[in-house]
Amino acid sequence: MAHPTVAVLERHLHLYRRLWRASVFSSFILPVLFLISIGIGVGGYVGQIQGVDYLAWIVPGVMASTAFQMAIGESTYSVLGDFKWVRAYHAMRATPVEIHDMVAGWMLYILLRVEIAAVVFLGVTGLFGALHSPWAAVTPLIAALVAVAAAAPVTAFAASIDNDSYFALLFRFFMIPSTLFAGVFFPVDQLPPVILPLAWLSPLWHGVELSRAATLGVAPPWPAAVHVGCLALFAVAGLAWAMAAFRKRLQD
Amino acid sequence: MIYARGLIKRFGDFTAVDGIDLDVAPGEAFGFLGPNGAGKSSTMRMISCVSMPTAGELRILGMDPVREGPRIRARLGVCPQLDNLDPDLNVRENLTTYARYFGLSKSEARSRAQNLLEFVQLQEKATSTVEPLSGGMKRRLTIARSLINNPDLVLLDEPTTGLDPQARHLLWERLFRLKQQGTTLVLTTHYMDEAEQLCDRLVVMDGGRIAAEGSPRSLIETHSTPEVVELRFTDEVDYTGKLEGIGRVDPLPDRILLYTDDGDAAVNEVHRRGLTPSSVLVRRSSLEDVFLQLTGRTLVD
């Protein structure tokens, strides 16, 4: 017998089978274009950073930020739409599927999407010779943690609003600043001390530092457990918020 | 199947359902008849275990919806008022993905979907997406979807609202077949003809309360007369007094209703009194008249 969570995941995968073409560019091609243009183009001027080629230095950052942006992008219109236009969650509500199945099924779907992109990206960057440590093999797990830390609160946000124009605020005031000050393209210690705390608050920064430590085989700026803990905090709080938001939206 | 005593649903200060008692037996086709805002849909949502009662006692299939919601929902078929099909999935996938929510195996989901597509006469549309289907086809698909788990109890919230007459008749015919197979049906409607066609027993709801209960026939016998004469006059004169004694007179904004045992005799008496209505219609009493009697208002405003 299929678990209700799996049934929810299957529904999302069924839809993805129809709509996957639209996501190929952002999931697989765009990250590689970033590597070529910034890693090789800008890298030519930068030379080495912290003892490695600039390309190798930004690979883990681009990977984590791809996971971050995919997780956020997927969790906006799709979630709101399944409440507001498709009413797919209302349909599930009339079956044995429970709120936690809806949230878990959705998170598994996001994870699957992010993992496929992360593994493909890891393979491509391996060909570039940009992975300097066997620890690089754990980066897909870090990407998974980043994905849930970002997708859970954004899913909750999308389930709480009634108008898609709020997403513009989310992108402008959360996603873009989180990406700019997360150490993807330059070390955050270059930042003025007043802005530095922004990086600490960004779940992406923790993911970037962990990934970089893994691909370069160096120690992260904070103890790894603290970075993981920060990401886990985002994930757990986000999941709790998402459950509450789904329950509120479906209850009457 | 359904047992309710003193069931109440409040939304803030607004009381949508104001203390109703219900008993629905297996195999019965039970209806809620009433205008928009009477509390029909709120009652339905409580029965389908997606909305919790504010007060009162409710048992569905002998279980408590607050504690055993998923177990009850596993045995219900719900056809909601607003279609919530997946527009990007095709007709068959809409059934099979829904079947999986009930834990059915993939092969079982496929074979049930096939049978149900035949039952609602959509087998030719199996691989079409939902978007281009007509309103009647979408509704038939939603009904097929609600039957995917072989439910003991099927809940239909305004199943034919917004459909054209042909689509409605096809739907009624399918629902009638279901009823003949012994499925317990509970439906809400604000169409008296739908209630008369499908329901063995119904309650008339108004303002969150049950105004009357019985079979369509017994409700008409109890609350109305066998026949009704509808008179229309072109001038603005008040004819109420001039019609006195012919039957019970009920003046509406656009026409006057005469409740009587013998319509033709009543029409003869109208003419004998020298009155010249612009149109005269003699018809049998309907649930619409029952509703008018009970609440003083028409069903569809």
TrEMBL record, chain A:
InterPro entries, per database record: ABC2_TM, ABC2_TM_bact-type, ABC_2_transport, Nod_factor_ABC_transporter
Highest taxon of source: Bacteria
Key word Ribosomal protein present: no
Any one of the GO BP annotations: response to antibiotic
Pfam families: ABC2_membrane (PF01061)
GO cellular component terms listed in the entry, alphabetical order: ATP-binding cassette (ABC) transporter complex
Subcellular location: Cell membrane; Membrane
Molecular function (Gene Ontology), one example: ABC-type transporter activity
Record's keyword terms, sorted: Antibiotic resistance, Cell membrane, Membrane, Transmembrane, Transmembrane helix, Transport
UniProt membrane topology term: Multi-pass membrane protein
Residue spans crossing the bilayer: 19-42, 54-72, 110-131, 137-159, 166-188, 224-246
Family in the record: Belongs to the ABC-2 integral membrane protein family.
Identification of the protein by name: Transport permease protein
Annotated source species: Planobispora siamensis
TrEMBL record, chain B:
InterPro entries, alphabetized: AAA+_ATPase, ABC_transporter-like_ATP-bd, ABC_transporter-like_CS, ABC_transporter_ATP-binding, P-loop_NTPase
GO biological-process terms attached to the record: response to antibiotic
GO cellular component, one term: plasma membrane
Alphabetized UniProt keyword annotations: Antibiotic resistance, ATP-binding, Cell membrane, Membrane, Nucleotide-binding, Translocase, Transport
PROSITE patterns, sorted: ABC_TRANSPORTER_1 (PS00211), ABC_TRANSPORTER_2 (PS50893)
KW Nucleotide-binding (keyword) present: yes
Topology in membrane: Peripheral membrane protein
Predominant cellular place of this UniProt entry's protein: membrane
Classification via PANTHER family: ABC TRANSPORTER ATP-BINDING PROTEIN, ABC TRANSPORTER ATP-BINDING PROTEIN NATA
Protein name, as recorded: ABC transporter
Source organism: Planobispora siamensis
